[in-house]
Amino acid sequence: MADESTRSPLAQRLTRPVRGPMAALYRWMDSRLGLADLINKGLYEATPRRGAWAYTLGSATLVIIALQIVTGMFLLWTYVPSVTEAWDSLNFIARHDEFAAIVRGMHLWGAYILFVVVGLHMVRTFVSGSYKRPRELNWITGVILFLLVLGLGITGAMLPWDQAAYWTTVVVTNILHYIPVIGHWAREVWRGGNQVGPVTLTRSFAIHIWLLPALLIPMIVAHLYLLRRHGEFGSWVNYDPDATEEELAERMRHAEPPYPAKPTEPAYAVPADLDEFFPSQTAKDGVVSFILVLIIFIMAIAVGSPLEAPANPAILNYVPAPEWFFLPLDQLLVQFPQSWMIPVGVFIIPGLASMILMAVPFLDRSPERRPWKRPELMVPAGFAVFFLLFETMLAVNRLFNL
Amino acid sequence: MSRRRFMVLVTNLSGAGITLLIAAPIVGSVLSPIFQRRTHPWIRLGDIADVPLAQPTAYVVHFPVTQAWKVPAVPRIVYVVKLNVSGQTQLLSFSNVCTHMECDVHWDTNLNEFLCPCHGGLYSIEGINIGGPPPKPLYRYEHRLDGTILYVRDVLTEA
Amino acid sequence: MSLLAAAGPQLSPVGISTGAATLLVGVVMLLHVQFAAFQQGGAILVPLTDFLGMVRKDERQSRFAHGLLKTMAVVFAFGTALAVFAVMVLFTGLWGHFWVKLLRVMFWPLVIEAGAFVTEVAAIYTLYALWDRLAAVRPLRIGLGIVLAIDEFVQMLMINVVASYMLTPRPAFNVPLILFNPTLVPLEIHRLVGNLAFTGALIALVAGVRFLRARTPEERSHADWMGHFGLVIAIALTALQPLIGWEYLKELQLHAYASWYDMMMGGLSVAFLFQIFLLGLIFTAGIFFMWRRVHAAGIRSPILGICALLSLAAWILAAIPYTVGFTYESAVAASANAPIWQGGTIIPFGAMIPWKITALVAMTFVSITAVTVYLKQNSLGHLRWGEARRGQAMLLVTVGVSVSLIMALMGYIRENGRGPFLITGHMLINQQQNFQAPTAPGPALNGAPPSSVGTGPGPQG
């Protein structure tokens, strides 16, 4: 332990000892688990003070993912992953089990809100240039998490085995057969045969509740570990790129852990103004997350989770539509017609987009964080965001006017 | 080889062995659908004597699911089309599965074409892809005519 | 569709001939569109620049926001007068049958449209009158600007419901389907983006003229900055338009094939060719401006130079006509749809697929690249306002004039694309005017020419 007198007032406040009747229990646990270290690392770290409301989106994402895991766990108390019983089990929930219907509604609306919050979190991180040295891996794990969440969203949409779920399954698994050379086998592996059938559902189910979460959770741990290791960057409002060397040296001297971030430019190593993560930041995080969970709860009761007619491949008047967060990709299927262009729209464009997204920290290596000084990033990104929104609106228009 | 190098080797080899022993059956089970044998029995579609000329008629046929355990047979739609080709009646039996993303196409009486609602694919009455994203014509079922009774089986051919 | 099915009486139109009545509506509405588009784009730019001026403490942005709002307040009266004239005199007086039937289908959109004027008047004149006093409560002023922007958005959405419905009505008389008809979304986005680009181009045009006439360095400096600001908006947003326009035409191809055919192959294809020519001119002039403006700051930017040349090449490629005859339709009619070297009239390099597409994609990506590089040079602090040359001001004027022309041309194409119909497939343009019975001509009322009085039976009673 460092000498108490050399530590800043903030650091002293951050590591105050526990008092009261629980002190003995705490000491016992601490000596075995190293609780003090864990709590100091997890809660009593310094974070940037300015613009703190903008930094609540990450924790909101975490809270909603936790909500998804918990509600998903308890949906399994009723849901049966079988083509003959999946729809019936959810129909039972919808008709006879009001609380389970709320749980299911929260799982659906949680997913919807999650996509919005993840998107905003990503935009915020991008605009503030938080992905720059040394936080490149924070960004990359974040992009992987985003892709995993997309995968969870689409496999989750397959499980109710109503019409919407059935056609989502058909289209998504069918996309695989446009992979060159091994496409047909890839489709058969997911489908468990050449047609969508009983094995398809059990496989989608297994991917949704085990395979993807098993990848998701370690990624979340890595994402949080990296956040703690390098400290939160905040945004340009926390730094002063025009500061003199003396000012920067002074700031470096007063850096609280985990600052100064290394390796990075001195101007961006330590935020100008620090605050405690607990309780200052957690209070703001809490408010935002609470509001979002409240919205999810209200939507689950007010709108709920729809269940269409049972899956029926022999129907002539049903218009299959994907979940809204997949509409831009669905629109690409329309815009890239005929044999060789289909793989371009299905794999090459989304694949290139994901790769470019992942490579952002390596494409933009300048120390500059102010968005108006980075038009080489902001202008193309602006066009990309417009393109996504435009594709979504076109898809809505197309499905509405069919 | 030093003792240390040997111990490193043993560690790595046992790790690889464990992985292999666990992974081999898993990979096999995941890939098993590729190696499955399937049967394609003939199924009675129905009497097609009343199918009008140049007017695609939808029949619902229940194909048995040969994928895994026994589940109820799956209804599918077979479009039966009678065409007059240079004085002779030609009989076609289409799958109504779009060749783009496998959605159900239907005969649109306004367009006089098969329309796929998913992404707007269009097919002519002969099942030829004439608009939108589909890369191939509609698949045809293998069929057999017994008088006016049509039998089909789940073997698809390209036109 | 029973509301629309009834044809007007087989009588002669009141006042003027169908051709003249059509021309009047066309001229007045095309003029009105120019004002309305400026209002709509300006309503977005005023709060935006006001906000930027506040957070970045940029006096130039604040001054610009005020100037733009003052212009809007002045222009608003004239633009609205045109709309009122169109509704009161032209639609009611000349096209009564059409107008009454349309009002029965489009009652609520037109009511909301008219109602939005109230909010618009309130917001625009409050801002105009209280601009300096509201400086003390800047967020309130910005908020009022946002109210104005939303109001203008609603207004345009409502008129787009009407305009898109007339082009692509749905077969069934179903209210949601009539409102969200197939071309509403593409038209809405096309116009929203287009109006902003148009406003940017007009700002560039005014700045270019001001720069050319500037007498003091201060004036020249502000005009230079204003031209830069307007041009970046104009080019960045016009870069989106080929994609949006392409999707708009795809919807037309699906839902109003005859209009689409007329635009692409028939008589209107000539107008469309002129339109793609103007589009190439806008991009090329805009990117040349960026290149030369950076050059005037003493910076050699080979990327901008290459962009300018690529844009020029794309422009030339895009402007090649598909046929030396009048239209493809006429080439087919004359059995001359063979390449020109085989005795036909077709120039294969003018084909839409793949050549014009290639040119449009190139224009889009080249202008996105150019805007990015140009803004990067600006963000590095290389541009000093006032150092531009006269040539660059003329390029700004070129962009401004071309964008204004392309707006008018686009309106002409859309309104004429319906062919013989006023509402595609439901209502012909004939028989939709106001009529008079021949037995009661009342020449004194509608000013019939004296010759008809001479040859006719003469006024009775």
Task: Report on this structure.
Chain A has 402 residues and is mainly α. Chain A has a domain at 53-328: Cytochrome Bc1 Complex, Chain C, CATH 1.20.810. Helix content of chain A is 63%, strand content 1%. Chain A contains 15 helices and 2 strands. Chain A has helices spanning 9-14, 23-33, 35-42, 57-75, 86-96, 98-127, 136-156, 163-175, 183-191, 198-230, 245-253, 277-302, 327-335, 341-363, 375-400; strands spanning 46-48, 274-276. In chain A, strands 1-2 form a two-stranded antiparallel ribbon. The longest helix of chain A is centred in the middle third of the chain and has 33 residues, at 198-230. The termini of chain A are far apart. The mean pLDDT of chain A is 91. Chain B starts with a helix and ends with a strand. The mean pLDDT of chain B is 91. Chain B folds into 2 domains: 1-36; 43-157, Rieske [2Fe-2S] iron-sulphur domain (Rieske Iron-sulfur Protein, 3-layer Sandwich), CATH 2.102.10.10. Chain B has 159 residues and is of the alpha+beta class. Chain B is elongated and about 90 Å long. Chain B has one helix at 3-35; strands spanning 43-47, 57-63, 74-85, 88-95, 106-108, 113-115, 122-123, 129-131, 140-146, 149-157. Chain C is mostly helical and 461 residues long. Chain C folds into 2 domains: 13-167, no CATH class; 169-428, no CATH class. Chain C has 18 helices and 4 strands. In chain C, the strands form 2 sheets. A two-stranded antiparallel sheet of chain C has the order 1-4. Chain C has a two-stranded antiparallel sheet with strand order 2-3. Chain C starts with a helix and ends in a 6-residue tail after the last helix.
Which class best fits the helix and strand makeup of chain C?
A: mainly alpha
CATH domain class of the largest domain in chain B: Mainly Beta
Helix content of chain C: over 70%
Report the span from N to C terminus of chain C: 42 Å
Number of domains of chain B: 2
**Distance, first to last CA of chain B:** 66 Å
Query: Please, what is the CATH homologous superfamily of the largest domain in chain B?
Result: Rieske [2Fe-2S] iron-sulphur domain
Number of strands of chain C: 4
Radius of gyration of chain C: 25 Å
- Give the averaged pLDDT of chain C, no decimals: 87
Q: Under the CATH scheme, which architecture of the largest domain in chain B would be assigned? A: 3-layer Sandwich
User: What's the main sheet of chain C like?
Assistant: 2 strands, antiparallel
